[in-house]
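Blinded run. Sample ID left blank on purpose so nobody reads anything into the name before looking at the predicted structure. Input follows.
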Amino acid sequence: MLVSKIMSDNPVTISPDKRVGQALKLMQKHSIRHLPVVKDDRLVGWITSRDLREVLLASMLEKITVEDVMLKSPITVTPDTKVEEAARLVYENKIGGMPVLDGGKLVGVITLMDLISAFLSMLGLLRTSSRLDLLLEDKPEALEEASRLINEAGGRVINVALGPGKEGKRPYYFRIIKCDLQPIIDTLKQHGFQVLDSVP
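Blinded prediction complete.
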């Protein structure tokens, strides 16, 4: 999935000469925590609600400009950046969002909430589902056989996540369209598979 699919396009922006108080009111009005700073249609900075909290002396709000407190070289992504890469940048840099640039022009904003929503969707967690955890041998044949048995017992796998391997085995977490798991569990056990846990 690409950033272009989940970013907020047509973002609210502010110019660098505006007062910090104006930036704060704009964030409150639109219920946002990040503002791209734009001058002559070009991104020149990035300001966050945390930046504003650091200068939140009421007497100073009308004296300090956005340019005084903005981050002048924010981390950015493009519309073609993969969501996984955007998430890595957010995580490693401990930030809550980034401007999205296309050829240097601001085309959107992506936030931590956008990324969380995307991953929940990719993992099938936003739809009604069940979970079945199996301990399998760490080889493709074991996964293929377990998937086949789940399917034959009436389960429809949405996705599979892997846990850390140990001594040639690893946990596999099957997300399945919500159904009665008992027939699936019985089938797997009959074929020698170890069921670690299940969430109906």
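Unblinding after everyone has recorded impressions. Residues 20 and 52 are 7 Å apart (CA to CA).
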